[in-house]
Amino acid sequence: MSVPFFNYIEEFVLDYRISHQKLSGVYHTEYEQLLGTNPVQSSDYPIIRSAMQEIGKEDTVIDVGCGMGRFIGYLSLRRFNGRLIGIEIDPTYAQFCMHLFRNKPQVQIKCQDAVCIADTFPEDSVLYLYNPFPAKLLDSFLSKANGKKIIYSNCIEKDVFTKHPQWEMQKNYYSSLSDGTPVEMAVFRHKAKI
Prior knowledge:
By secondary structure, the protein is an alpha/beta fold. It has one domain: Vaccinia Virus protein VP39 (Rossmann fold), CATH 3.40.50. The chain contains 8 helices and 9 strands. The radius of gyration is 16 Å and the shape is globular.
C-alpha cells in the first residue's frame, strides 16, 4: 500500500472519529474580505503529530483560528489532559466546533477575533497557529499575545516572527503533509517568559 493512500485512509478514519464528516479542505469565508484573515484550512494529521511533540500533557493549548476543530479533536482523541481552547472568528465554524465538543469539558470554543483577545490568553499557554493571519494582522497579534510558546505551522509569514522584539525562534524544522509535501514549522518563545 502506498504512503499517500494510507494517509488518506488515516485522515478519513480520524476525521470520522472526531466529527463523523470530512474536516479537511480550504474554505473561503467573508472574513477574508472584511478583516483580512486567511481562509479556513485544517492542519494535516502528520503536522498535528509533529506539533504535539512541543506540547506537554497538562498544558493549556490555544488553537488560534480553530476552523472545523481538527487540531483540538485530535488532541482530545489522544487523551490530552490540559485545557483546549479554540478561537474562531467565523460564527459558522465556531458554532460547528461548539456543537462538536459540547461533551468535552476540557474544550472551550470562543467565537472572537483572536487579535482583539490575545492579551487575555493565559501566560503559560501554548498557542498553535496554522497560518491564520497575513503579515499585518500577525504582527498585531504577536504584539498582544500572552503565552509562553507559539507553534507556527506552514510558516508563510515567518519573517514577522523573526523580526518581532517579543518572540524568539527556538526551533525551525520541516514536517510533511499527508501527501509527503514538506511544510515548514517553527517554535517561538516569548522573550519575557524564557
